[in-house]
Amino acid sequence: MITARAAASFDPVGRSVATARSFVRDTLQGWGFADIVDDAVVLTSELVTNAVVHAGTSADVLCLRSDDGVRIEVADRYPEREIPLQATAVNMGSPDREGGRGLQLCAALAGRWGVEYTPTHKQVWFQLILPERPVGTRTAGPSLPADLLPLADGRVRVAVVQIDRAGAINAWNEDAEELFGYAAEHVTGKPLTDLAAWPHTPGTSTGIVEALQLSRWEGSYGIRGANGRVTPVYASHLRVRDTGGEPSTVCLLVRDHERAVLQTPLRVNATDTTTSSEGQASDPFEVFIGSPAPDDLDGLLQRTVERARDMLDGDSAFLLLATDDETELEVRASTGLPSARQRFARVPVEAGPGRYGSARMPAVHEDLTVVPGAVPLLGGTGMRSVVTVPLKVEGRLTGSLGVAAESPSRYSNEEALRLQFAADRIALAVESARLGELERLRRGSLSFLVEASDLLAGTLDRDQTLALMAQMTVPTLATWCAVYTIADQASDPYLSYVLHEDEERIDGLKALLSKIAPPDPVPTPGARVWSAPAEAAHEAALRTSMRSLGLGESPPVSSGIGTTLATASAVGGETVVLPLVARNRVIGMLTLGKPSDEHFRQEILELAEDLSRRAALALDNARLYSERMAISQSLQRSLLPPELPHIEGVEVEVIYRAAGEGNEVGGDFYDLFPIRDGAYGFAIGDVCGTGPEAAAVTGLARHALRLLAREGYGGPAVLERLNSAILDEGARSRFLTLLYGELWPQEDGSALLKVVCAGHPLPLRLRQDGTVEPAAEPQPLLGVMEDLELYEQTVTLDPGDVLLCVTDGVTERREGTRMLGDDGLTDVLTTCTGLTAGAVAARIMRAVERFASDAPSDDMAILAMRVPGLHKD
After folding, report:
1. I need a surface site. Which of 45, 107, 385, 764 has the fewest CB within 10 A?
2. Which residues contact residue 661 at a Cβ distance below 8 angstroms, ignoring those fewer than 6 apart?
3. Whose CA is closest to 150, among 252, 268, 266, 263?
4. Which strand (E) or helix (H) includes residue 307?
5. pLDDT tens digit string along 649-681?
6. Cα-Cα-Cα-Cα dihedral sign, residues 415, 420, 426, 431
């Protein structure tokens, strides 16, 4: 049954968290639920922080009192966030991290908790059960044997001293007289500070004057007695006021070794205890930080800011580490600040007026509104007072630690000394962990760049290079990546490739980037921030949200608020652009992005810059290779006949295979062309080598053959004149093997051939009975000797006969020490009786390819001609 309720709403600003804590604390104390106040305040603080800071919405807090406890509900207006279900096993992460701890703390501290959704709200609730204790009992301990009870004198004396508003003693009981030797009339009216021997540890303690002003205080100090000796005491101070409203402080004091009489049991974790099992004090570093792993830099820093905030009762705290050149400070941990101030945001060391401009000295700012910009990190957060101290190792600035509050004049030099003492205790550990992290990053960066270089060097395909660039950056360096390319100096940047670590976000990201102007192709090295994607995403999300609420035009069928908000979240963080510069020209831009409220760390940007230089060169090499291959392929096509003529009564088939990757022009060629009515010329040749020089001789040979043959020269005359033309090329000449012939189909179904074989593999004739014989005799090749005396040989192909002409790439096909050779080719040809010219050529090529497992190392050309004979009706 609900017996009381209290509700309040809080605006989406940082100061609302502290206000919500005060609201819950005052409400529960008013209801008499002091035992559960601390747990309730912690849980409320986390949930309200999630709402007003991280989600950026207002928060509604409702406290409900019942007979057995209290239920607190925190509602925000951000229902899209994914919440783990209690029924499923979900890893909620480490409790030491800054974000995402609200539900984990609910599971740890609350008796019951849950999450409820409505179309416009998300509500997280938790219920705290009152401890089942007898009335009037606040804490209790177990029964112990007598030898385990704390030691005390025969009679325990509790001195009761009351201090007025001015700090003077106005009450002194008999136990106080016995403990310290002063009669009441001798000390009444004197300040307690005259008697107190306060432990003056620089920067670690609160003075006696401040302690007397606190509402409650416990601790140890000394009282100087009448005999001049100091008696160590344990004290419990309570600030009260009389019926007239006059405040005073009641001090209960016992001997220090009898502190168990007054000491309140502390609710601390095992890792936070300040004494070991032997009863000896722990290292102050462990007292302040706890015990994160020595190499866990993030855990160490996050624990530091949280303890610093608690130590000075602040609303927020932050820790920045210096970059290698100490020109900037990089946010590495924070608590109580908006998420936009989260990790890896960078602040110049010498920025702004005031003492924060030199982060190398402690500074206390009583009111930041008086000196705007003194601490750039806190701009727009609602923080008014701040204390910052440097982290130094051997006199060198390594970072800065700060604690801030929403009220002005909160901190003084006393708090600065305390914070500086804590910073001095952790500086060396932080620097050691930071150097260890940097070393790991450098080793990882070196391995990453070596692997990236190998991958980029392993391809000369432009599209594959673009894909590799994006895949190497996502998710290693960034959450998403876009690559823009520039064809030439007169062209605009073109969006060539987009990748996101979540494949479902790629289409939305590509559509968003296509609608905004690309970044300017600035050749200046280094990363520069590009805000256009985040701005466009936020505008699109806002328009879609307004349309969904009926405040704008109806959204298209293909769009949805979920997709738009997801895209906005995906690109809402920091976006940087790195130029792709190769051979002193900007050929594109590499764009890297983070999701909402995330920043790039400096080491990642430096690594991305190294990668962009390698990627730019690889991309330009791929472009040059593609251009060269296109030119080579075009030239290769120009050296071969566009199509073969149809010859009545003769079947002709040609197969051509160029070796290599396609970027070198081959030296093999073939041709078949009409000379005059009823006569056709054919040729198959092989120029020594490949490349432009071989292509020049190939083009010369093919066109010279056609020209000379059509001028009426016979075979020997054509080749002798071609030999002279090749020799006239001088140093650019190449020797050439060539089989040239002329073909006349006959009326009886046969074909007459006149053939000249100048150094080329001999043509083979396959008869119908399966016999194979050379169809010509070998003669000198071209391009070597000036005076050639060539002759032609006449061959008649009967119906069913096949003439096979090949280049040496066919006969010299090798597998280890074996070579196909003329005999192997003859053996294959004998199995082709009765096949068409196309089938003969295909069988020869298949046999050549199967002869060896390796790819061919030389060009291959096959020309097969068959006389089918006359068809009878």
Report:
1. 107
2. 629
3. 263
4. helix 297-311
5. 899 999 988 775 554 566 788 899 999 888 999
6. positive
Whole-number average pLDDT of the chain: 80
b/e 234-273 (16+ beta carbons within 10 angstroms → b): bbbbeeeeeeeeeebbebbbbbeebbeeeeeeeeeeeeee
Pairing of strands 772-774, 814-815: unpaired
Select, from the ranges 518-522, 621-625, 719-723, the one with the highest average predicted confidence (pLDDT): 719-723
Residue 106 C-beta-side C-alpha neighbours within 13 Å: 25
Q: Are 66 and 111 in contact (CB under 8 A)?
A: no
pTM confidence score = 0.46
CA distances to 532, 605, 740 from 577, rounded to whole Å, are: 11, 10, 62
Q: Which of 623, 341, 608 is nearest to 481 (CA)?
A: 608
Whether 192 contacts 211, CB under 8 Å: no
pLDDT level of residue 356 (50, 70, 90 thresholds): very low
Residue of 598, 543, 594, 589 lying closest to 565 (CA atoms) = 543
CB neighbours of 142 closer than 8 A, spacing ≥ 6? Answer: none
Tokens at 625, concatenated: 């290779």
What are the structure tokens assigned to 271, written together?
């890792």
Residue 333 and residue 18: Cα distance in Å, rounded?
20
Give the whole-angstrom CA distance, residue 481 versus residue 492. 19
CB-CB contact of 744 with 752 (8 Å)? yes
Residue with the two structure tokens 């998300």 = 122
**Alpha helix locations (H) across 516-651?**
532-548, 561-571, 602-638
In angstroms, rounded to a whole number, what is the distance separating the alpha carbons of residues 103 and 109? 10
Task: Report d(CA 237, CA 262) in Å as an integer.
Answer: 10
Query: Any idea which residue has 């409320």 for tokens?
Result: 44
The structure tokens listed for 124 are 């997280």
User: Phi/psi of residue 196, each to 5°?
Assistant: -75, 135
d(CA 780, CA 237): 119
Range 392-402 average pLDDT: 84
Give percent above pLDDT 70 in the chain.
82
**Cα-based distances in Å from 407 to 50, 165, 314, 361, 366:** 22, 24, 10, 23, 9
Q: Are 274 and 287 in contact (CB under 8 A)?
A: yes
What is the four-CA torsion angle of 321, 326, 327, 328, rounded to 10 degrees? -10
Q: How many CB atoms lie within 10 A of CB 275?
A: 10
Expressed in angstroms, the distance from the first to the final Cα of the chain is 110
Of the pLDDT bands very low, low, confident and very high (cuts 50, 70, 90), residue 143 is confident
- Structure tokens given for 781: 């090749």
Residue 488: CB atoms within 10 A of its CB come to 7
What angle, rounded to 10 degrees, do the helices at 561-571 and 506-515 form? 80
Distance from C-alpha of 741 to C-alpha of 756, rounded to nearest angstrom:
6
Amino acid present at 540: A
Residue with tokens 């914070």: 419
| DSSP at 355 | G
Q: Tell me what pLDDT residue 278 has.
A: 42
Q: Does residue 604 register a pLDDT over 60?
A: yes
Q: Retrieve residue 92's tokens.
A: 């909620």
Helices (H), 119-247: 174-180, 184-187, 208-213
Question: Closest by alpha carbon to 567, among 534, 530, 531?
Answer: 534
Report d(CA 605, CA 627) in Å as an integer: 32
User: Token pair of 398, please?
Assistant: 């390594």
Q: CA 63 to CA 75: how far, in whole Å? A: 12
Indicate the SS3 state at residue 454. helix
3-state SS assignment for residue 526: coil
